[in-house]
User: Fold these one by one.
Assistant:
Number 1:
Amino acid sequence: MIVITVVTADLFLDEEYINTKNVQTSCPTKIFTKSAMIFGSLQICATHLVPDEKLKYAANVAAEWLDNDGDGDADEPRILDSLKESQSLVVMSLDGFSSLAFLKIAAASVVGGYTIQDLSAEETNNPTRRDASQEEIHHIIVVGGWIKALPKIFSDQKDDRSDLYNIWKFADDNGHYSYDDPTCDDSCKTVEFFYLATAAYLGSMADLFSDEMRLKDKVAMRKHIPNIMDIFESTDYSYPTNHWPTGVYTHKKNIQLSGIDSE
């Protein structure tokens, strides 16, 4: 699966994609000069124009989603296995990939078997706009991790009729959630819904400013879509319900940085 935002630019004229050193061989193309590996399972690859601090912040957010109770161990080891098997990868640009860069990344990803989500530095920990890093990284962890590890519960495919898919369909049919993007199919809407339901559960009001998710907190969800609470609070696995990621993570042993200083 590849989800990449494209901006119009010429790959061969854009200095962001001209790289003659610090090539990250574990990344899908030579345009990436720095990277972070989180829990040995989820990688973030960034171009040279992405500030080091933005990459570190994104890596911390990823670590928080995986170790949400902050004890230094991944909350759900099965997710790590799935992320690794699906070669889940976040690709970071300064402010969106050009069309030619997208084609290059997409081709390399298909050949390499990566599951990819993009993230820009401009939408990461930017005080002038909503921080999108929590959302984009949650998407890749769900698609490459939760869905793969526990498809009966988390699958986004109609034919699987997973618990999550059925809850999304119920919420959509009953006016509790709506997503009008014509490019987003039922699979996409299921993943988007799950993110906003997580935001409502953990109280991230910055993510609930629109009327896409009409149920804004635990009380409303428990009343109108009670089955979503079973997904969040099940004892059969450990879903992140401790806190909303803040970009601060203290167990640095779980993040390996390459191409930048660790401090």
Number 2:
Amino acid sequence: MRRHGSVRSAVGFGPSEHLGWGYVNRAEFRYRAAEYIGDGLARNEWILFVGAASRAALRAELADLGFSEGVRSGQIWVAPVEDYYTFRPGSDVVDPQAMMTRGIATLEELLATGCPGCRAVVDGTAVAHTPEQRDALARFEFLTDRTMTMLPVSALCTYDVTVLGAAAKELLCLHPLTNAGAVGFQLYAERDSGFALSGEIDADEDHAFTAAFRRIWPLMAQTELVIDAEGLRFVTHRQLIALDEQARADGREVILRTGQRVVTRLAELLGLDNVRVEAAADRRHA
């Protein structure tokens, strides 16, 4: 089981860990980016720094943070948003599949050189303004997270909540680790499941959950879809009904694995047709 939940700093995260951070100003972004990059340098990892600025401006920001040597040595690379993302022709909408094809090829080349791991600090705010942009970016986030379960790569994905408002939750929730207060739940990839859910999905989080799960649903190939909900502490009837309706529309069966009696009891009371609850072994969560 992957580490999941809310965190209060960007320190102490290794390969295969995917952290989403909603920041309120540039000072906060810089502080967390510095924490994360510093960890990567200590691990001798290759680091990518992506932002909505020119290469020169990104290098200057890194120098300001004390990482000029890492940039000079080539251990830290920079990429403006327009160079990092692959877009659908004639649009500002990310192409998730094209991004994954290019990204995995680059990662495999780097790892073949003996690089112990790779990490990225990515500010995705510039490509998350519209619902269409977030539709595509959500799929890319989930596909990236799935890749992280198999390769020694990690990322700190940041979004400016002052700019995006509540819409930032739609993307932040697609990380197993999120900063405290940013979003109440996590939806992420897990090796033995279609996806995992953790945290608490209350009425305030319903929109973010519905947007996120409908966006990543087409990426699920299983007729019998297992959702690891061992870390899900609270859910309302709305989310369970939404899962049931989506599964029924697609002719799928959802198996919700949880050790939480409240979730099990709620599912029983609702009399769901296409969602079945299975008891999961008690485990300690990070």
